[in-house]
Amino acid sequence: MIFKAPLLRVVTKIIVPPIILFALYVQFHGDFGPGGGFQAGVIMAAAFILYGLVYGVSTARQAITADVTRVILALGVLLFGGTGIVTMLMGAEFLDYSVLGKTPLAGQHLGILLIEFGVGMTVAGAMITIFFAFAGHGKDGNIALDQENEGGGND
Amino acid sequence: MLTSDPWLILLVVVPLLAAPVCVLLRNATAAWAVALVVSWSIFGIAVKLLIQVLEQGEVFYRIGGWDAPWGIEYKLDPLGAFVVVIIATIGAVVIPYAKKSVENEIQKERIYLFYTMMLLCISGLLGITVTGDAFNLFVFLEISSLSSYVLISMGQDRRALTAAYRYLIMGTIGATFYIIGVGLMYQMTGSLNFADLSTIMPAIADTRTVLAALAFLTVGISLKLALFPLHMWLPNAYTFAPSAVTAFLAATATKVSLYVLLRIFFTVFGEVDLFATFPLQPVLIGMALAGMFLASLSAIWQENLKRMMAYSSVAQIGYMVLGVALATEAGLAGGIIHLFNHALVKGTAFLAIGAIIYSTGAVTLRDLRGVGKSMPLLMAAFIVAGLGLIGVPLTAGFVSKWQLVTATLEADMWPLAALILLSSLLAVIYVWRIFEVAYLRDSHLAPVKIIKKLPLSMLIPTWILALASLYFGTHATLTMDIAHTAARQLMGGM
After folding, report:
1. What ipTM does the predicted assembly reach?
2. Is the pTM of this model over 0.80?
3. Among A16, A106, B76, B121, which lies 20 to 30 A Cα-Cα from B246?
4. Whole-angstrom distance, CA of residue B44 vs CA of residue A142
């Protein structure tokens, strides 16, 4: 389904960038105010889903291809776990961020920022993948089949 | 202050992080190589940890440096270490086997996803076993379950999708019940740590909330365990999943669920005399017996080899639960040793079936006439597994059944001992049906044709498990000692 109404198409084009910007705000301001990786990931995905709803799935897939979402999904998990491995290499326990900075406070700050960014990436990737897998179903069975298995990524 | 042992966390984190690496590689062979290296390193770590636990006592890890009960604590006791070794062994044997089998059964462009899911599943199952935290256990339960739904849906047959969907629905109900139970316990105790819960539990054990929690936990885990009559998802899931997946899940997933059941009954409720307070024993024994007999009877009538072995699995789960339900040290030891032995035996059986499918393309009994002559080495391994299922002396199955029978006699429940022997006779029938088709039936006709030569990478893993089941059938001291240590510790409360 592609909306032909010019009003919808123009408004979507205008509000997609602010949505992405807001997602990044929720992501990186998460440790001072309400927010965090999961919420940011969902808002980020909403931008692409809105674009897909109005301009059609194939147009949206040109903006963010299946390969890109797949890589984002995987990198998010790796960033989360990798942070834990780095803390272990620095002599602390898994995910003990205190050693990441000069002071434990700075370390905790950096650590939570990193793992929340990992969560955000994976959630955004998973949401976009799930939406396009379902939205693309029936119209192009192969694409849908190809993406079915991606939903298993856990954050 | 307890020191953290980094090997314990690596056991879970290495496969967990190897999974996204496989996604990034997007190449079947590279993903397989990653999975192979990871599964073998895990095996090494698991054996090291088992030795360490047996010699020096429990191993701990504090995630993020937070002390239990506030932080998530990983803790490995003899029972946990034993289960970890089972998962790691089966993983290390199945991954090399999977290469050829999967190339034959799964579309090429999806193979890297297969290894991704396999690694996630291994990570989830290991996580369940090492964690000392009820909620963390739920997270790993979901990781292992979600990945196993995907793995099952990858089967060639389109019915694999409905089988996976059915398992998804049943598994989700099971996981939901588990988390409801954990939530109720948290409401009453304010704690999620198993060790901490067990100290608080005696004071509130007779409240209705805790009773409801116990009911939800038992039913939820029994669903994942496929305890009769909650096993309805299992036969189809095992039948239509890719062969390597069936072998892996049959040997590990239900075993880990039994481990969770033991953890809840004998650690969380360890200070409460659970079996004296609640009518748990007759219910569990009843379901175990029903499973042993009805599932074995169903197995006899199956034409599809995979489905026959799947029903046989439901029956074997009955034996394990029977051991647990006795709630004596000998009974628990019987359940725990059967957990290990059945993993070896059923692993061998499903690996052999996978090899038959690879070479002949057939899986139903009537298409397999004379397969014992076409594939003598492979069928010999299958027969070893079959004898193990019956519990013939010299096989691993005998050791566990012997222990179970001894335990029932010690508990003065000799009718149960008779029923164990009687249900073993049912196993004789379905194993005989396979034997007859493979070696005896219509021997004047040409045996089934070999389409593809069986690669050594599939034959050797099958024989490794078959030989292991023979070895542990004749040298049972090591495994029996571990099972007894684990059982003693469970019965001692903590």
Report:
1. 0.86
2. yes
3. B76
4. 41
* Best CA proximity match to B241, nearest among B298, B293, B166: B166
Per residue in B458-491, pLDDT tens? 999 999 999 999 999 888 888 999 999 999 888 8
**Per-residue pLDDT tens for B335-388?**
999 999 999 999 999 999 999 999 988 888 888 888 888 888 999 999 999 999
* Rounded-to-integer distance, Cα B155 and Cα B103, Å: 12
Helix B208-225 × helix B243-262 angle, to 10° = 160
Asked whether the beta carbons of residue B20 and residue A78 sit closer than 8 angstroms, the reply is: yes
Identify the pLDDT of residue B277.
78
Across the strands, what pairs with B131? Answer: B74
> Is A73 among the domain residues?
yes
What string of DSSP letters covers B344-397? HHHHHHHHHHHHHHHHHS--BGGGGTTHHHHSHHHHHHHHHHHHHHHT-TTSHH
| Residue A113 counted as domain residue | yes
Among B2, B7, B9, the strongest candidate for a mutation testing the A interface, having the largest count of A CBs within 10 A, is: B9
Q: Is B67 exposed, middle or buried, given 0-12, 13-18 or 19+ CB atoms closer than 10 A?
A: exposed
Bridge partners, residue B447, by sequence:
none
Distance in Å, alpha carbon of A11 to nearest chain B alpha carbon: 36
Residues of B contacting chain A (CB within 8 angstroms): 4, 6, 9, 13, 16-17, 19-21, 23-24, 61-65, 109-110, 113, 116-117, 120, 142-143, 146-147, 149-150, 153-154
Query: Residues of A near B (CB-CB distance < 8 A)?
Result: 70-71, 73-75, 77-78, 81-82, 84-85, 88, 92-98, 146, 148-150, 152-154
Structural domain tally of chain A?
1
**Domain range spanning residue A41?**
6-152
Per the structure block, which two tokens stand in for B378? Answer: 């492979």
